Amino acid sequence: VALCKAFVLVGLTLAASGQSQDRFTDEFGGEFRGFAKSPTEHIVDRLPDLVVVKAVAGEIRARSNDEPLPNVLFEIRGPGAAQTVRSVKANALGRFSLGRVRSGEYVFKATLNGFQSLVGRVRVTKTADPTSRIEIKLNLGV
Amino acid sequence: LRQIPLRYIDPTGQVLTISGDVDEAQKQLCGILGANDCGQRISFNHDTNTITVDLTGIDPSKNEGASLLGQLVESSNVYNLTLGSEFLTAGGLKGLTDATPNENLDNRDTRLGHPTPFNRPPNGVDDVVAIDPSRARFHDSSGRPVSLSSLIFHELAEAYAKVDLGRRYADADTLSVRGGAVVTGIGGYQGAHFNAVDREITLRIQRPNLQLSGRAGDVLIRDPK
Predict the structure, then answer these.
(1) Would you call A63 and B100 a contact, using CB atoms and an 8 Å cutoff?
(2) Which of A62, A89, B121, B137 could bridge to B223 as Cys pair (CB 3.0-4.6 Å)?
């Protein structure tokens, strides 16, 4: 049994390392560089408006039925031109938060296999409304 | 090699139906067929909304567009292509918007659990592909614009893979996220999306001129307004 478990762990680790290499590089002029690619990444939607928040936290739902979407990978890159990417996975209620994010402007991307991804910009500032959140709705992949 | 009937007319009169801007839909299906005389080969019955495709003299093994149209017409399942700002679902008319300029709905999609009537095709239809051409304008990862016929080909191929081939949309379901990476199931399963990608790559090899434009199954972003 222990040997089987070891194989399973190795398998998952290999899968994880394989997927971690599947990231955007120079496509789209490098706009999405460093962000993860879903195995079925097809359409990437853009959120047109800048989101201003005090802390990086929010909720992700499916647009078609407004149900919370768990397991969505939420990533931010920045601040500004910095290429540092941080990520978190939405919980069972579709909620996520990233602690200790410095003030500044970031690009974010929400990704879930089988769904269209969403990218947008978020500004983190201490002067923002403390109740402000990042509200995301994902479309089904087509 | 399986031969597609030269002129196939479904006994029920309902297999591949088009709605909305039917003139534009016929034009785009013509582009997919890729025959110089496609105007004479694709006919539309206004009473039944059905498409008839005459494949006389066309070898589907050398023309993926003809192969797909033949399969859709020949299928016992019913497909609908709607071009316009709204389309019919099981729950009634549904609008296409800037946020969702195209949809591809079938009766078995479980990505959101049991689909609601507005997320299912209308009664009697197995898959509806709805596209608003004025909103569904995309560039691929190389910055090339994606043509409407390329988008329609991808979506119809995906619809065929979902319904006739019984494929799920994605190759694998998301299992978890580890170290910032999405981990998916391991296996050789090919989902409907990548089945459609395979077919569009075949089509682009057969028609090198298509390689100047964007590939619909690539990662796409919406054109800025």
Answers:
(1) yes
(2) B137
| B182 to chain A, closest Cα gap in Å | 6
Report CA A65 to chain centroid distance, whole Å.
20
Question: Per-residue pLDDT tens for B2-26?
Answer: 333 333 344 443 468 889 999 999 9
Interval B159-177: pLDDT, tens: 999 999 999 888 765 444 4
CA-wise closest residue to B9 among B71, B76, B59, B74: B74
Pick the residue from chain A with its C-alpha nearest to B194.
A40
Torsion angle, alpha carbons of B94, B121, B156, B23, to 10: -50
Contact A46 B217 (CB under 8 A): no
**Among candidates A20, A45, A139 on the partner chain, residue whose Cβ is nearest the Cβ of B181:** A20
For A53-62, A67-76, B175-184, which range has the lowest pLDDT when averaged over its residues? B175-184
**Which of B113, B170, B173 is the closest to A141 by Cβ?**
B170
Q: Are the CB atoms for B109 and B169 separated by under 8 Å?
A: yes
Instruction: For the beta carbon of residue B52, count every other beta carbon within 10 angstroms.
Output: 18
Determine the distance from the C-alpha atom of residue B114 to the mean position of all C-alpha atoms in its chain, rounded to a whole number.
22
Q: pTM surpassing 0.90?
A: no
Model ipTM value: 0.78
3-state secondary structure (DSSP) of residue B116: coil
Task: Compute the CA torsion angle B129, B130, B131, B132 (nearest 10 deg).
Answer: 170
At A19 the three-state DSSP class reads helix
Is A30 within 8 Å of chain B by CB? no
CB A26 within 8 A of CB B201: no
For residue B60, whether the previous peptide bond is cis, meaning omega lies within 30 degrees of 0, is no
